[in-house]
Amino acid sequence: MNIQVRPARPHITGAAGPLYQRAPTRDPQGRAYSDFMVLIPGIREMSSEQLNDRVAGLQAVLGSYEQIVFADLNLNLNLLWVTLKPQLGLIPRIAQALRDRIPEAKLVAHE
């Protein structure tokens, strides 16, 4: 699992496009994916070393779940978006694993 990291800058106009166009919504059989957002306060102001450590932590946690199909870290918004195959109780488990690795991470919303 590779996280897409979008750098913090005043105007994001990169070729990556808006999240709604990049994040998958359904699997190949047409079943809907679930999503959740995690706020990571202050991540955009961190030094390169601290940021690399946080991204490595995110990749370690998210990479350990085969149900995760997409992740996007928007540094401009201090926001992590995760798309996954739905499974009862999985989002709270992942959110707790993220908090264990990155204490400032806060679950914002999930569907």
In DSSP terms, counting alpha (H) and pi (I) runs of 4 or more, how many helices? 3
- Spatial order of strands in the largest sheet: 1-3-4-2-5
Approximately what portion of the residues adopt beta-strand conformation?
15-25%
Q: Sheet bearing the most strands, described?
A: 5 strands, mixed
β-strand number: 5
**Overall 3D shape:** globular
Q: Which consecutive residue ranges, at least 5 long each, have pLDDT under 50?
A: 9-15
What is the CA-CA span between the terminal residues?
A: 21 Å
Query: What's the Cα radius of gyration?
Result: 14 Å
Order of helices and strands: EHEHEEHE
Arithmetic mean pLDDT: 87
Portion in helices: 25-40%
Walk me through this protein's architecture.
With 111 residues, the chain is α+β, with helices and mostly antiparallel strands. It is built from three helices and five strands. A hairpin with a 4-residue loop joins strand 3 (68-74) and strand 4 (79-84). Helix 2 (48-63) runs antiparallel to helix 3. The longest helix is centred in the middle third of the chain and has 16 residues, at 48-63. It starts with a strand and ends with a strand.
